[in-house]
Specification:
By secondary structure, the chain is of the alpha/beta class. It has two domains: about 160 residues, 3-Layer(aba) Sandwich (Rossmann fold), CATH 3.40.50; about 60 residues, no CATH class. The protein contains ten helices and ten strands. The chain starts with a strand and ends with a helix. The structure holds adenosine-5'-triphosphate (ATP). The site of adenosine-5'-triphosphate has 11 residues, from strand 2 and helix 1.
């Protein structure tokens, strides 16, 4: 049984059909990449999985359970967390407040988890009392990922984690993604930087205009003529 199973998913914004009949699976332990041009429907797909958008058709199953109509906070409790495009940290709250927010669906103390995040992201630890808005872009991205991890997800949805970051920081973010996966977190990754994302993932799905065009093992698709032409600069 796949950890995440999306079947025939369609999501509209009014008259705009953003996602049309999309089916994909993510197995436990995998990193799966979703690539596609701007507006292909990648963010919409992630937001449907995290239950921030309501599909017009299709089924989303998580660990065998139908979550298509589950409220977003229930999805978090089940083990789905998203790090959104553009980080969306609370700029006027401290780093620590942002992290605690990530654990809002959990009962009891989150001290141990905070400590764990500060170990994993030492720069967040050094800046725990600083307002999140004063962090660098890379630090804000780390905060967005750490905030998502505070809910102890089984499935982590990452939307454009490299967006707007310097190459050296991007490498750091991808090394964090690898570490999280090595520690058992399953990841569905949306990325503009297709090559990096494919190198860091087991499988890749290619979306065009809301529809799946093809998919396969990332290691094979990086050498696929269609992917090379359209997404890897020929
Ligand atoms: P990007 O990389 O630009 O974020 P994407 O692949 O994530 O692209 P989506 O953001 O999912 O694409 O958008 C899919 C389609 O839905 C696009 O045509 C987009 O213009 C449209 N769309 C997205 N959000 C909205 C919205 N809130 N209202 C109306 N249309 C929207």
């Amino acid at each position: 049984m796949a950890l995440l199973e999306i079947e025939n998913l369609s999501v509209n914004y009014g008259a705009i059909q953003a996602v049309r009949g999309l089916s994909l699976t993510v197995e436990e332990g995998e990193v799966v990449t979703l690539i596609g041009a701007n507006g292909a429907g990648k963010t919409t797909t992630l937001r449907a999985v995290s239950r921030l958008l309501r599909p017009v058709a299709g089924t989303i199953r998580f660990a065998g359970r139908d979550i298509t109509r589950l409220p977003a906070d229930e999805a978090v409790k089940l083990g789905i967390a998203q790090s959104p495009e553009g980080r969306q940290v609370l700029a006027r709250q401290s780093v620590q407040d942002n992290l605690e927010l990530g654990a809002y669906t959990r009962k009891g103390s989150v001290r141990a988890d905070l400590y764990e995040m500060y170990e994993r992201f030492p720069r967040l630890g050094e800046r725990r009392d600083q307002l999140a808005g004063t962090l660098s872009g890379g630090e804000q991205q780390m905060l967005a990922i750490a905030r998502a991890m505070m809910s102890r997800p089984k499935l982590l949805l990452l939307d454009e984690p490299s967006l707007g970051l310097a190459p050296i920081i991007v490498r750091e973010i991808f090394s964090i993604i690898r570490d999280l996966n090595a520690q058992g977190v399953t990841i569905l990754l949306v990325e503009q930087n297709a090559r990096l994302a494919m190198n860091a993932s087991h499988r890749t799905y290619v979306l065009e205009a809301g529809q799946l065009t093809f998919s396969g093992n990332s290691a094979e698709l990086v050498n696929d003529e269609r992917v090379l032409q359209a997404y890897l600069g020929g």
